[in-house]
Structures are given as structure tokens and as C-alpha cells.
Amino acid sequence: MEISSLINLLPKAEVHTHLEVSLPISRVYEIAKRNDVTLPLSYEDCIYKSTHYEGLCDFLSILRVACSALKFEQDFYELALSYFKISYENNIVYTEPQYQSCNFTKYGVSEETILNGLWRAIQEAETNYGMQINLLYGIGRGASVESSINSLYFAKQHSEKFKGIAFAGNEFLHPAKYYKEIFDLSSNLGLAGPNDEFLAVHTGEEAPPEIMIETLHNFKIGRIDHGIRALEDPFLVKMLSTHQIPMGMCPISNKALKALDQFPERNYIYNDFLDHGCLISINTDGPAWCGGELSDNYLDFANHNMHLNAAELSQKVVKISENSFKCSFLSESDKTRYINSVRRIADNLTTLD
Fold it and tell me: Which intervals hold domain Adenosine deaminase (predicted)?
């Protein structure tokens, strides 16, 4: 069987994606026109910039363009449903999308408007696509402590709609240690699970290992999002492997945002993490703006492992599918159920071959 067919047939989880960048750029501009919003970039300039990132800051600046277009509940419904449709087409059976309300509230949109639209899309996708969806409430580096506190209290009021907390943004400008009050509050409010096991923190995408170590030292973390620069510190990699700390990595996004330029002598750093026994999953970061859908990321992974024979390559792809569930915030019984489904399908395909 062709490896692309195996990738398409395997059930997958996605645990690291941002709903803000789930709409195609063309649709963003259509919604902006519908809402009588003049965006700060022309459509052509936005297309160009989205394919010529120089780093995370470029991506975040374009993200602000997308967020400023959305004003009404219907917009957020369409935003989320766009992602769920892409997910369904990529055989994603479980997903943990995150969003940061501060990206929209600064343009005058209410928290309720955002959540109502997203929640309507979640319910529709679970019904029509048979997906399981757990929404993560995002806190952004760069948001004021006061606004972040207000956001957490809003999340607490609607805690039945959120599985956990995600923390993202520019680490150089806003190190995690400056947000201890926010971490403590999310813990005290029970938003990140009984033992903070449902807290996902972006770290080590651009910032060096010492910042990752500082973050891990100060906070309980259920999953690291990105974490690629850990590879520069063998002791950190060993710790991540020994403790099987889940890591949600985004290969095509890392390439698009030039994060992989830090490893010019390595062919494919994600194999290094696997070889060291780290628990990594492969994700999109955002399928519409980050360079590829989930199946594209899996195929990219396979293309970097073509030195293996067919059976070895299939086993490695199946392992990545299994890891996607292991890195999730699902219960252990649900993880086992999904992983058994992956193995059953993989075994059946092997028998057919």
C-alpha cells in the first residue's frame, strides 16, 4: 500500500492548532467585506506575507489581520467549522483546538460572542463528522495580567466547555516566569485539571533551552507545544524522554516560520526526538496559514523517512498516529480505545497487503 493511502486511512488526533488561523485567507477577506472592515493589508500583500514569513513575529502580525475581520457570532462559527471540516477530511477523529479571546476582544468583540460561535460549530462538527472535540482556552503572552485574570474568570464561568488551558506567544518578549500569577490562578480555579495536567505551554519554538528549563522548573505542564530547541541540550532531551512529557510539534509550520533555520546541519529534527525516545506528536499549528494540513505533515514525515523499507516506514507512521493520542488530554481509557483503533486498522491493512 502506498504510504499516502496509509496516512489517509489512519485515525489521527491533533493537539496543537490555533483556531485563529483556520480560515483560508480569501475567506477572511470576504468576511471583512461582509462586516465592513477595512483590513490593514491588501489581499495580495497578505498572501505574499503568509508565504514568506521571516519568523514568529511575522506570523503574529498577520494573525492580527485575520482576527480584526471577525466581529459576530456567525464569523466565529464559520472560523471553527472551517477547521473541523479540514480535520474531518484529514481523518482527525479527536482534536484539541485552542484560541485566545484577547486576539478578538481588543477589537471590541465580547467573550460571549466568540465562545457562542465556536461552541455552535463544535456541537455541529461532533454531530455531523463524528469527531470528539475538547476546546482549550488560550492565554496570550503580551496580554496584561489584569485582562488575563478577567479572561480566566470568564473561562471559569463556562468551564464545562473547556478541557484545559493553553499559553502561547513570543517567549523572548514575554517569558513564562512573568506570568506566575496567571498560572497559579488557572490552577486555583481548576481550569487546568486537578494536577495541572491539562496545561499546554508554547516553549522552545524560538527561545533557547534555558528558557524551556526555566518554564518546566516553575510550572506543572501537561504538554509542551513546539519544544524543538530542546534538541540543543542533551540533558533536557534525556529528561523529556525519561518523563515522557508530551510534545505537540508542527514540522511544516516550523519550516514556514524559519524555526528550523536554527538546525542547518540536521536533515529532520523530529526523527532525532523519536530516536531519543521522546513522546512527540505531529500537528499543523493552523492548517490555513502555516503551510499544510495534517495529512501534509504526515506525508512530509514519511518523505523524510524514505530510507526505511516499506514495513519499517509504515510502523513509524503508525507510531506517530498512536503518539497523537498519547499526547492528548484524553483519559487513559479513551487513549487506549483510540490507539487500539489505530492498531486494528494498521493490522487490517497489513493483512490486505
Answer: 11-343
- What are the pLDDT digits (tens) for 99-125? 999 999 999 999 999 999 999 999 999
C-alpha cell at 293: 494540513
What's the Cα-to-Cα distance from 310 to each of 168, 262, 353, rounded to whole Å? 38, 31, 11
Alpha-carbon gap, residue 146 to 136, rounded angstroms = 20
User: Domain containing 331 — which CATH number?
Assistant: 3.20.20.140
Burial readout 230-267 (b: 16 or more C-beta within 10 A, e: otherwise): bbebeebbeebbeeebbbbbbbbbbbbbbbbebbeeee
Do the bridges between strand 199-203 and strand 223-226 make them parallel or antiparallel, or are there none, so unpaired?
Answer: parallel
Cα–Cα nearest to 115, from 64, 168, 151, 61 = 151
What are the tens digits of pLDDT across the range 261-280? 888 777 799 999 999 999 99
Show the CA angle centred on residue 164, arms to residues 327 and 119, nearest 5°. Answer: 110
Structural domain boundaries enclosing 206: 3-19+79-352
Q: How many domains does the chain have?
A: 1
CA distance 30 to 34: 6
The answer as to whether 69 is a domain residue is no
DSSP 18: B
Residue 97 lies in a domain: yes
In a domain, 160, yes or no: yes
Query: pTM of the full predicted structure?
Result: 0.95
Give 212's strand partners.
none
Of 42, 24, 36, 102, give the one whose Cα is nearest residue 69. Answer: 36
